[in-house]
Amino acid sequence: MTDGKLLIEKLLRYAEKFLHLESRDEIYFRNILLRELRLTEPFDGEVDLSYIDKLDVPDEIVAELEEYAVENGIAKEEEKGLFSGYIMGILSPLPSKTNREFYRLKEEKGIKAACDYLYSLSVKNDYVKKTAIAKNLKWEYADGTRILEITVNLSKPEKDNKDIAKLLTQKVSANYPMCRLCKENEGFAGNISYPARENIRTISLTMGGEKWFVQYSPYAYYNEHLIAVSEKHAPMHIKSDTVEKVLDFVDFFPNYMIGSNAALPIVGGSILNHEHFQGGGHLMPMHKAGIKTEYFCKDFPCINVGITDWYNSAIRLESEDRKEIAAFAKRVVEKWENFTCAPCGIFAETDGVRHNSCSPVARKDGKKYIIDIIVRNNITTKEYPDGVFHAHPEYHNIKKEGIGLIEAMGLFVLPGRLKKQLAMIADILSGKTPYDEKALSDKENYLYVHRDMIRSLVVEYSCGKLTEQQAEDAVRNRVNVVCSHILENTAVFKDDKTGKEGFDAFMKEIGAERK
Ligand SMILES: [Zn+2]
After folding, report:
1. Ligand 1 center to 140 CA (angstroms)
2. Is the previous residue joined to 58 through a cis bond, with omega within 30 degrees of 0?
3. Could you tell me the distance, in angstroms and rounded to a whole number, from the CA of residue 470 to the centre of ligand 1?
4. Which of 69, 82, 109, 266 lies at a CB distance of 3.0 to 4.6 Å from 378, suitable for a disulfide?
C-alpha cells in the first residue's frame, strides 16, 4: 500500500523544486493535499527525499499518486490519469503567474530562457509526456542532398474497449469547451473521452492585432513542438492577415519556426474549425533544403525569391525588410488562391468549390526573415477520389491520412500499427516467417494492406535470403522511398516539363522572372 502521508511530502518537495511552489505556501498546499488524498494529518517523521531533486520526469511520482488514488477509491482505474493531472495542476503556478514569469524572463534573460521555463514546467507538471514521446520510432532518410525525417507514432495512448464502453454511459457536455484548442480548455477537468487540461499552461501574446496564446504539444512530434492558437473559435483561413500573424510570431519567438496548415480538407491538418499554427524549436527538413531556381521580382528588388529545392511546390522569400517581405508574401497567397493551370490539373475552383490553399511557414535567421509558401490544391477526380495531390492509393498502406503541414515540411508521422507490421514484413524477408501469398490476400490478415508491397519486396530481395538486419533495412528503405513519393504526389507542379512551365506561369503571375 502506498503511504499517502509520505506521498504528500514527496509531492511538496517536487513542486518546490520543479513547479515553482514557494515555501511560504507549503503549509497551505499540504492541507489541500491532505483533503484531496482524504487524510487528516500529515507525515510525522524523518525521511531523506533528496532523490526527488534529481528526477528528470514526473513519471515515478505520478505513478505513485495514481496508485494511491485507486487503492483508496479516490479514482477508478480508468480515471486515475484525470486525478493525477488535477493534482499536478493544483501544484503548478496559476496561468497569471506563469505569464508574468515568462515575460519577466523574456525581458531580463531573453526569449530562450523564457521558453526553457515554460517547456520545463510543462514537462515537469506532466503536461508534455516526455517519456511517451521517447517511445516513438525515429529515423532519418538521406535522399541525395535532401533529408526526410520519419517517426512511427507510439506515444498517443489508444483507448481500449473498456474505455469505449464507459463512454456510452458518461454524461459529457457536447459544446463546452467548443473544441480542443479553445482557450476554455485551460484548467478543464476532462473526462474519459476528453483530455484533462488542469496542468496546461499557456502564454498570451498578440499576433496580427488579435489575441492569441501558445502552448506546447503534449505528444510532440519534434523538439519543443509548440502550437499557437487564436483566442477566438473561428475557422482556419489563409489570407493576408496570416502573413502578419506568422511574422509577429517569429519577431516574438526568433528561436522558433511557425507555419500554418492549408485551410482546406485533404491538404490541411486535422482541426480546421479553430485557427491555429504549428511551431517550435526544430529546423524542418524543408528548411535545410536550398533554392532550386532563382527568380527576380522588380517590384520587390530587396527580396531573394526562388523555388525551394523540395519534393512538393514551395516558394521561398528571404529579406531583412519585414514590410517588403510581408507585402510580397501576401501577393503570393492572394494570387495562389485564384491560380488555375489546366495542364498541371490545378483548378482554383470547380462548381463553386474552392481548391487552392497554401501553407505559409516563417522563421528568422539573425535579422533575416525567411518565408516558405507551400502551395496546395485539394481537387479530387474519378481516378483519384481521395485527392489528385494527395498520397496515391498504392502508398495508403503506409499513410492514408491527409498530408498536413508537418509532413509537407518533410517530417513524417506514421501510424503506430507500422511498428509491428514492418517487423513482421522483415521476418518474411529474412525467412523467419514463410511467405504465404494466399494468406496475405485474406482481408482479415494483419498484413493485408501491405500485400502488394510485400510481393514486390519478396521479388526484389529473393525472399528469405536476407539477414535480420538486412531485412529490417530493406523494409525501412522501402518506407523511406514511399514517403518521398507521397511528397511528390502532393506537388502541384511536378518535376517535369509541364510542371516547370506551370510553375513559371505562376511565378510570372506574382511578378517574378527567372534570373
Ligand atoms: Zn475552438
Report:
1. 34
2. no
3. 47
4. 266
